[in-house]
């Protein structure tokens, strides 16, 4: 399966984020492969003085029934992705896009610009001078150059599969499809400012993350 390249439209859809950052607010982004432990690392990087934004949570808010994103996604993928309560059935949507490259590209074309605009608005509104952004698809969306520093979280494929299998009802084939839909971790590591190897004990991951937290926030806040 061919790997995704960074979004060609990144320079366009990233503009709102860049404008928000021009207000003297510094952005530290956390990214990595599916299941690598991004949320765990982001939790260790948090501090009350920093605005925390989770791109996945932003996306879920945009999917509320009746929203523009909701209507466009339903038009693109059919009413079969609507759940019993009227919202998007994320499992059904995932099944539709992770087995079809064109479908995934279409979903990203619909959602990425809206997510970036919502993130930019939250950055603009916060009175805090620094932002911690958890963005799983930072590179895929083409917005690496719109943030000030990047932490990439990596783990071996076997460990990722074991961790996800324990937490979610996904089989190895489905996990592999989702991993294949993202850019290689080697690419992300090459373009990172900090890299955290999350193969070992949680205490070691915490130690590494808190070291980065001290370095970054000491200079930014």
What is the CATH T-level topology? Rossmann fold
What's the assembly state of these chains? single chain
- Euclidean distance between termini CA atoms: 43 Å
Main structural class: alpha/beta
Read across the widest sheet, the strand sequence of neighbours is 2-3-1-4-5
Architecture overview:
The chain is of the alpha/beta class and 221 residues long. The chain has a five-stranded parallel β-sheet with strand order 2-3-1-4-5, with helices on both faces. It has a single domain (10-220), classed as Rossmann fold. Helices cover 52% and strands 12% of the residues. The longest helix is centred in the middle third of the chain and has 25 residues, at 101-125. It has helices at 10-13, 15-21, 38-45, 55-62, 68-77, 90-97, 101-125, 157-167, 172-180, 185-190, 202-220, and strands at 26-32, 51-54, 130-134, 149-154, 194-197. It is globular, with a radius of gyration of 17 Å. Mean pLDDT is 90; it is low at 1-13. Helix 3 crosses helix 11 and helix 5 runs antiparallel to helix 7. It is built from eleven helices and five strands, in the order ααβαβααααββαααβα.
Summarize, please.
By secondary structure, the protein is of the alpha/beta class.
List keywords for this structure.
disordered N terminus; Rossmann fold; 12% strand; five-stranded parallel sheet; 221 residues
Topology readout:
Blueprint (H helix, E strand, L loop, with lengths): L9 H4 L1 H7 L4 E7 L5 H8 L5 E4 H8 L5 H10 L12 H8 L3 H25 L4 E5 L14 E6 L2 H11 L4 H9 L4 H6 L3 E4 L4 H19 L1
Parallel strand pairs: 1-3, 1-4, 2-3, 4-5
Helix pairs in contact: 2-7, 3-11, 4-7, 5-7
């Amino acid at each position: 399966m061919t790997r995704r390249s960074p979004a060609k439209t990144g320079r366009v859809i990233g503009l709102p984020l860049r404008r928000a950052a021009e207000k003297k607010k510094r952005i530290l982004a956390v990214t990595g492969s599916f299941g690598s432990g991004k949320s765990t690392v982001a939790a260790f990087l948090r501090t009350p003085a920093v605005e925390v934004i989770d791109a996945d949570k932003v996306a879920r808010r945009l999917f509320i029934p009746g929203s523009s994103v909701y209507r466009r996604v339903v038009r693109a993928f059919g009413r079969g992705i609507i759940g019993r309560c009227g919202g998007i059935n994320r499992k059904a949507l995932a099944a539709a896009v992770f087995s079809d490259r064109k479908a995934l590209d279409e979903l990203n074309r619909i959602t990425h610009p809206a997510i970036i605009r919502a993130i930019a608005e939250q950055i603009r509104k916060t009175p805090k001078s620094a932002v911690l952004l958890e963005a799983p698809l930072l590179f895929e969306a083409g917005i690496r150059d719109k943030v000030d520093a990047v932490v990439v979280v990596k783990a071996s494929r076997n460990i990722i599969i074991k961790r996800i299998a324990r937490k979610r009802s996904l089989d190895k084939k489905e996990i592999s499809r989702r991993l294949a839909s993202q850019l290689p971790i080697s690419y992300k590591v090459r373009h990172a400012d900090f890299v955290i190897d999350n193969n070992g004990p949680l205490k070691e991951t915490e130690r590494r993350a808190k070291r980065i937290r001290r370095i970054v926030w000491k200079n930014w806040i």
